[in-house]
Amino acid sequence: MLARAGLRAGPGLRLLQRSQQLKRSAWLAQAPHRLNSGLPMNIGVLFVPQQEAWVVERMGKFHRILEPGLNFLIPLLDRIRYVQSLKEIVINVPEQSAVTLDNVTLQIDGVLYLRVMDPYKASYGVEDPEYAVTQLAQTTMRSELGKLSLDRVFRERESLNASIVDAINQASDCWGIRCLRYEIKDIHVPPRVKESMQMQVEAERRKRATVLESEGTRESAINVAEGQKQAQILASEAEKAEQINKAAGEANAMLVKARAKAEAIQLLAAALAQQHGSAAASLSVAEQYVNAFSKLAKDSNTLLLPANTGDVTNMVAQALGIYSTLTKPQAVKTQDEMPTTREDPQPTPTEMFKAEESSSS
């Protein structure tokens, strides 16, 4: 009865396996599949190519793995069951839909790079290693994208690829396959989201342009203020130096004038100390008095005149009297110092003036 049940279930089981193989072949037809050397026949002497591992079964049970080079097998008893390539395999992961953390639906695809590390596990651990790894990559990619927002998806593509590789390696360790890297090829965003992202980018660029323009205006104002400050400082320093130089020049001029005046006074005092010096000084004062009186009406219309304006003799005598009063102490001192004997008596100023008038008339 068990035999009959097995015979009855045999065709159905073969039909189910056949349908699964068709599904896998239809999926693998969408992506380029790795090339293998097929299942070679056992003729006793076999040459295994480099970077390939042939799994041999003896009477339906695993026997050994053939290494590259010359190998010998027993015909009919030994059978080459699997041929595994040890090269790096590139698998194109088909495009799929994924929803981000902020509920944006993305169309994303990628490329998977893997290598068979253990031919025994790759042969007996999973039915189709490439199909299993590809499905695991798709589910892991959906799971990782659901943890990120749309902006972080574009910024953190490298970390997303690394997370997918780690998740695949944790699950494919028992299959004898190691995922080397995973790369996202294209990320397709819905049109409306793409338009909003473009508007956001334009707004960000306008913001940066405005900020840069304001910073340039601020720097320009600062530079202008600094220039004006330096100009005022230099102008004040120049004015200070000019005033110092001017004051020094005025001081030097005053010193020169004072020295010249002192020398003039010394010369005048020496002249007055000589014989007939007082008479000459009296005559000079009288001349200056007359000249000053003659210029009174030239500078102003308002005049203060003495009562005896017409009496020139009286005016000269008055000027000489003022001078005699001012010089009297000096004259007394001079007379005390001078010797008492004189050869010629000195005429008075009035007499000298009268003598000049008579000679002129």
Indicate the overall shape. rod-shaped
Biggest sheet features: 3 strands, antiparallel
Strand-residue fraction? 15-25%
Number of strands: 8
Q: Please mark out the parts with pLDDT under 50 across 5 or more consecutive residues, or reply none.
A: 1-13, 26-37, 331-337, 339-344
**Strand arrangement in the largest pleated sheet:** 3-2-5
Brief descriptors of the model:
361 residues, alpha+beta, three-stranded antiparallel β-sheet, 11 helices, 18% strand
Write a structural description.
With 361 residues, this protein is of the alpha+beta class. It has eleven helices and eight strands. The chain has helices spanning 2-28, 119-124, 129-145, 150-155, 157-172, 191-273, 277-294, 296-299, 312-326, 328-337, 349-360; strands spanning 45-48, 52-58, 61-66, 69-72, 78-85, 88-99, 105-116, 177-188. The strands form three sheets. A three-stranded antiparallel sheet has the order 3-2-5. The protein has a three-stranded antiparallel sheet with strand order 6-7-8. Helix 3 crosses helix 5, helix 7 packs across helix 9 (312-326) and helix 9 runs antiparallel to helix 11 (349-360).
Element layout with pairings:
Blueprint: H1 2-28, E1 45-48, E2 52-58, E3 61-66, E4 69-72, E5 78-85, E6 88-99, E7 105-116, H2 119-124, H3 129-145, H4 150-155, H5 157-172, E8 177-188, H6 191-273, H7 277-294, H8 296-299, H9 312-326, H10 328-337, H11 349-360
Antiparallel strand pairs: 1-4, 2-3, 2-5, 6-7, 7-8
Helix pairs in contact: 3-5, 7-9, 9-11
